[in-house]
Specification:
Layout lengths: L4 E7 L15 H16 L4 H6 L2 E2 L2 E8 L8 E10 L4 E9 L5 E9 L2 E2 L11 H7 L6
Antiparallel strand pairs: 1-4, 2-7, 3-6, 4-5, 5-6
Length: about 140
């Protein structure tokens, strides 16, 4: 599998801070989403394309490890890497301080294809995903 990875820059806004003046932990999920969306765009299978192909891809698992806190106006580099696609979409995330390169957070998520019309979860990723990735359909 060809490595697929995208890095985006996010600046921590005031409204993302908690009472301790650091980025509230739940906001990191939005930072992951920005990177995930850019990664999906990179192979032309964003959420609109997914739905148009007849599938929705909910997140069914998410694990986050907070290492250091992000602060007001800090510029973050958020990297999303595709780690698997045969039976589900697996992605790994890393958040680093742009200025120092210090890793602040790492995470991973899993999304599964669900047929939009029937609501049935697919145990194998649909062919359209393989086509978008330029990978052979093995099934």
């Amino acid at each position: 599998m060809k490595t697929r990875e995208v890095t985006v820059e996010v600046q921590v806004p005031f409204h993302d801070l908690d009472p301790m003046q650091v980025a509230w932990h739940g906001n990191y999920l939005r930072y992951f989403e920005v990177a995930r969306s850019a990664l999906l765009d990179s192979f032309d299978y964003n959420y609109l394309e997914m739905e148009a192909s007849g599938y929705v891809w909910p997140i069914v698992d998410l694990k986050v490890k907070y290492i250091r806190s992000a602060t007001l106006n800090q510029h973050l580099l958020v990297t999303a890497t595709l780690t698997e696609f045969q039976n589900r979409l697996g992605m790994r995330y890393e958040v680093r301080c742009k200025e120092t390169g210090t890793r602040l957070t790492k995470a991973q998520s899993v999304q599964v294809a669900v047929d939009k019309n029937s609501g049935e979860m697919q145990f194998v990723s649909p062919k359209v995903l393989f086509d978008k990735l330029g990978e052979p359909w093995p099934y």
